[in-house]
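W.,

You were right to be curious about this one. When I first looked at the sequence I had no strong expectations either way, so I just let the prediction run and decided to look at it fresh. Below is the sequence, 134 residues in total, followed by the output.
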Amino acid sequence: MIGNLNHIAIVVPDLSDASNLYRDQFGADVSDEIDLPDHGVTTVFVNLPNTKIELLHPLGDDSPIARFLENNPDGGMHHLCYEVRNIDAAVEALTLSGMRVLGDGKPKIGAHDKPVVFLHPKDGLGTLIELEQV
């Protein structure tokens, strides 16, 4: 069902500092900042030859990652994103097997303008998993 690893997401306390680290110190290709109000985050993608790193920062006080940053002021790994061919079929199969989709269970449009869902971390070996339709 899952395909390639699309990205690893890291919550950071300062997007500019994190972007500069990857661009200036590591020599990586770093995107511009993208505000995603529906998800409550501002994101930057670090484009690598085999995957991407998504740098996340809260957008607004009610951001779902604001609490993560309060508990981890230096930031840290937030989630893994896997590609799926058909997100509706993936959600149906996973929920039938007992996995929980966060929110209302319906895909939302993510940072790549593609449908995404998040699976409960307790169902993913303690890791928040995002599925993105490709």
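Here's what jumped out at me. The helical segments are 15-25, 66-71, 87-96. And, maybe more interesting for your project: The mean pLDDT is 96.

Coffee later to discuss?

I.
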